[in-house]
Amino acid sequence: MLTSKTFLRKTKRGNVLKIVREHYLRDDIGCGSKVCKKCAILVEEQEAVLDDQLPDALSKAYKNPHYLIVDTNVVLHQIDVLEADVLCNVIILQTVLEEVKHRSSTIYKRLKDIINDKRRKFYVFVNEHHKDTYLEREAGETANDRNDRAIRVAVKWYDLHLSASQAHVSAKKRIRIVLLTDDAANCEKATKEGLFAASVEDYVCCLKDSKGLEDKISRSESHFDEGSKEIFPCHLTPVQIHDGVKSGKLLQGSFQASRENFLEGQVSVESFEKPILVQGYDGLNRAVDGDVVAVELLPEDQWSAPSEIVLQNDEVEDEEEIVEKVLKVETKQEKTPTGKIVGIIRRKWRQYCGILQHNALQNTTRHIFVPAERKIPKIRIETRQAPTLMEKRIIVAIDSWSRYSRYPSGHFVRALGKIGDKETENEVLLLEHDVPHSRFSEKVLSFLPKLPWIITDEDVAKRTDLRHLDVCSVDPPGCTDIDDALHCFQKPNGNYEVGVHIADVSHFIRPGTALDDEAALRATTVYLVDKRIDMVPDLLSSNLCSLKGGEERFAFSCVWELTPNAQIVGTRFHKSIIRSRAALTYEEAQLIIDDDKQQTSVAKSLRGLNKLAKVLKKRRIENGALVLASPEIRFYIDSETHDPIEVQAKQIRETNSMVEEFMLLANISVAEKIFAEFPEHAILRRHPIPPPSNFEPLVKAANYLGFEMNTNSNKELAESLDAAVKEGNAYFNTMLRILATRCMLQAVYFSSGVVTKEDFYHYGLAVPIYTHFTSPIRRYADILVHRLLAACIGADVTYPDLLDKKKMNNICHNLNYRNRMAQYAGRASVALHTHIFFREKVQNEEGYVLFVRKNALQILIPKYGLEGTLYLYPPKGMKQEVSFVYNEENHTQSYKNIVFHMFDPVTVQLTLDRSNIQHEKLVFKLVKPFIPNFSVSSIDEESKENVTRVEENVSEECGDKAGTSRNPVVLQQMKRKDEDFRSKDSSRKKKHKK
Amino acid sequence: MDLVSDQGLRIDGRRPKELRKIRCKLGVFAQPEGSAYLEQGNTKVLAAVYGPHQVRNRSKALHDAAVVNCQYSMATFSTFERKRRPRGDIKSTEMTLHLKQAMQASIKTELYPYSQIDIYLEVLQADGGNYCACVNAATLALVDAGIPLKEYVIGCTASLGNGDVPLIDVSHLEETMGGSNLTVAVLPLSGQIAVLEMSQKFHVDHLSLVLNEALDGCRRIYEILNDTVKNHLSEIGAISGWGKSDL
Ligand SMILES: [Zn+2]
């Protein structure tokens, strides 16, 4: 059965090593075709996936029925074509599969998804281990040439192999192979050898029914650029880049485009503290946001500073002029290291959402695509469907970017739906934030418990029966996924027994099932304003796991004995059965506590909890926990149109903080327990201490107004924040806290085996160890923690992956990524609804100056949690009588005797500018203080010339780090997600109210 | 990286339950009482057996059994990187001890009181499963030396690929890329385990899976070695006329 073959490989690992590996060649690898009778008996497990009955003459060029074999570059560049359902019966050679795997992990994953889709009939032929198709590399042959030859040999083998099984069929009807390759030389060689070969474009164009597949073809660069002049310098070759990086002449880093200025960006290089600035066409040299690039540092006398000008490529402007403007920006600002990008090491191109730019030319197939993400350049595409696509949000992929073209060229992938439709916009939002949101597959649903679900005697025997306890839950109104409930009573010895009961999700989601994999992938439930994308199917999230009032439910209970002073005397954990007496809202709970006449056990329980929570909170704050609160907003949504009809700040009650305190306590207790039992494998959450430099903006801002910010420790910071109260500006303190939140780093999950114990610290909560235990319905981390805790107390067994710290750490990376994306998606959703709310509205609002910029004021509207840039200079091409003076030292803008300081109150008028359909923006006009010829009176519509532009930033914040977030609404969400502060904000629950 | 592809093949083209190709030969040296050369894939080992002879260090002699002395070494050229490998470093001392334990389990030492049996093992090329190849080569050399054995002692490794696919006869590449490895030395007919070692912990759910795979591998290696011995004997026997002295 086995033939063995050794081959040589050289690797450079300091020395040149001769590596000898065995390579077994086999005779039991099937061809995968149903036509073939020989292979069917070879290996039973191998299903023949390739059809024997093919539709007649798919293609005008190839009359034979045929299978397709594609080469590596076709997979890498034409993956969108392959993803289209049109092409079936495709053979993927192992040579191709492995090359794709090495070249691009994302495309490899997409290819694997296609292969796993049974309907597509893709078959992987392991040609490298087949005795007849394996090839040695010949002397002088490059690896690429060898692989091309291997592909041709495989095509030939298939042709021969299949014809042997089709001896009875006439030559014209036999199934043949068509090789798809965009490499002309390879194509020619194949044709010479008597094989069918074609480029993807030729092949697709010859299809009788291509179903719009032409649009998805990635075309070669030259296609667009006949006779244009060059715009960009050449990129260095990979060898030059490699040598340059090695010698230190070039630096490797990842490129981040500026979202404010499309001709500016920065490259983060590991060895440099500050990112390297790149400017202009030459400097950016076709880098797209996220790409890994090679950058050359300019001599110090050519260094520049980031231009403070906001430059958007919105309107078609004279671009030469723009370039000039950018480059001649003179600033007194500190110069930063500046460089130019000389080569691309790795492209991080993905698919982008956006719209087609209106084209004055009729009947052209060439169009410009405008991505929604401002950091991404416009993309040129070819499509015949432009008239129907004009009104839609579409997805486009970049193929290439030639030196002669201002924009990269790409191809159309698919359409999402009509612009402005809430469904479409939600879809865009979810896609842009990489939120998995397809419906749960049949396979996933098959692991759900069968209904009716009943509690058996066996269950009762295994669990502690707590149905006699007066447990209740407290949540925001309309909450359907209740994952926690509480109880409390005073024991005869004067101490209190307090229990936190968490939905026992890990009972239903067993490790290794498709349901578990799906939950792990999703990582978190994503809350949009009008939509919830569940982590687990509805049956669990809203029913079997949800601790509904009056229903018997499984719970994981954490029960303490606390002294009246809230000191822990003892902690117990057990899997239990509870029956919640009532599912209360914060408001209802508050009313019960406040109403002395109520003396039910639930009422007593709540009062006990409330009393203890106050002690706990006081102690926590004394330890240095930060309070980074900010107003929360809630949309009231019309039940018919689903449009927001009112926006209101949300009230925070005592009961919010009551529940929060016990959740924190449970999380800490559980963290200690699982870490003691599994020192190497506990899933914990840490919040790193921010580097001192992060606090600079906060310290400076406070200093302007004469307040000292002590940022040495969280305790000192908390005290300084408490002390910073300004008479007559009630919102000042909140604004400082908003700034403080932006100094923070993101809290992250990690496996305790990969981080030293000192780094477990949670800065925001000021606790040495912390985890998430209390929301398993909506967070996967909590499920893992439940499993660990269950193993600790012998209620469940571990499984291999749970005790593999490498795998767990990878899972943590995904959780952290998804959490971040969920936050951004939530913010973007709030922004979207804010826009819908302001359609057809003009409103005056109180606001504050949050920052003073060189040409603008940053305004914060507490009522809506909105922030926007208010330009003090007129839009390009407009004249303005009023000119402001910027004082760099004091960070003020002044006109005559009117001076704008940081934190000053202002009144602005809000309207929605819908002229750019893709970026609707809120326009703020200054009302108070009144400046003649600049401000507007509160009702009048001013002429366009005098409009002060304020752009509302929310939608662009999505891709940004939380540390620099600009939208206070976000704070609320971050708080909820990170700190488990428990205030489930408005976006989380649907509220329908007329 | 996955050790087993979606098509069910390992990196070198084997299926999970396939052994590497084993080639072996008895009686490769004239000087020692017994000798053998064994290849298991690219792992190549020489074994030589001297004795039984008188115990050199009398104080170590046993009154009821033979002393089994093992000596393990690796050739300087045995790995990709050339290295001087002094005898008696920790790794080879450990190997020596484990080898001794396996060989003692197999040899009927009680037949040779006050005697010593020396087994020398040299790894010429290392590509994973060195210990197993040594055990197997030593068994053949003992057979060649005509030393009575209870039964063959056979070594085999197993590991897990892709989290839960048991792999047998692990190559060096798989050793370094994969997770934990299990090594056993077994008396395959009676099913007794002489040596069992793991490079890292296995989860309890996986241990029996991997162990069964390794035991199965031992039985299959036993068949291969036994065939070699039979062929060798028939060759020797044919040449010597099956002991007829008149030839
Ligand atoms: Zn076949």
From TrEMBL, chain A:
Q: Care to name a GO molecular-function term for this sequence?
A: RNA binding
Please give the start and end residues of each transmembrane region: none
Where does the record place Basic and acidic residues bias? 975-986
Instruction: Report the record's Gene Ontology biological process terms.
Output: CUT catabolic process; nuclear mRNA surveillance of mRNA 3'-end processing; rRNA catabolic process; rRNA processing
Q: Does the keyword rRNA processing apply?
A: yes
Domain PIN residues, every copy: 66-188
Keywords of the record, alphabetical order, are:
Cytoplasm, Endonuclease, Exonuclease, Exosome, Hydrolase, Nuclease, Nucleus, RNA-binding, rRNA processing
What is the designated name of this protein? Protein DIS3 homolog
Q: Which domain of life is it from?
A: Eukaryota
Supply the InterPro entries for this chain.
Answer: Dis3_CSD2, NA-bd_OB-fold, PIN-like_dom_sf, PIN_dom, RNase_II/R, RNase_II/R_CS, RNR_Ribonuclease, Rrp44_CSD1
**Family listed:** Belongs to the RNR ribonuclease family.
Which prosthetic group or cofactor does it need?
Answer: Mg(2+)
The segment annotated Disordered runs over 950-994
* Xref: SUPFAM superfamilies: Nucleic acid-binding proteins, PIN domain-like
What are the residue boundaries of the RNB domain, all occurrences included?
463-795
Q: Which GO terms describe its cellular component?
A: cytoplasmic exosome (RNase complex); nuclear exosome (RNase complex); nucleolus
Q: Which PANTHER family match?
A: EXOSOME COMPLEX EXONUCLEASE RRP44, RIBONUCLEASE
Output the Pfam families linked to this UniProt entry: OB_Dis3 (PF17849), PIN_4 (PF13638), RNB (PF00773), Rrp44_CSD1 (PF17216), Rrp44_S1 (PF17215)
Q: Where does it reside?
A: Cytoplasm; Nucleus, Nucleolus
TrEMBL record, chain B:
Cytoplasm: present as a keyword of the record? yes
Residues spanning the membrane: none
One Pfam family linked to the record? RNase_PH
Indicate the segments forming the Exoribonuclease phosphorolytic domain, all copies: 18-148, 152-215
Q: Name one GO molecular function term.
A: RNA binding
Instruction: Give the main location.
Output: cytoplasm
Q: Which family does the entry's similarity section mention?
A: Belongs to the RNase PH family.
- Outline the subunit composition: Component of the RNA exosome complex.
Q: Which PANTHER family match?
A: EXOSOME COMPLEX COMPONENT, EXOSOME COMPLEX COMPONENT RRP41
Briefly state the protein's biological role: Non-catalytic component of the RNA exosome complex which has 3'->5' exoribonuclease activity and participates in a multitude of cellular RNA processing and degradation events.
What this protein is called in its record is Putative exosome complex component RRP41
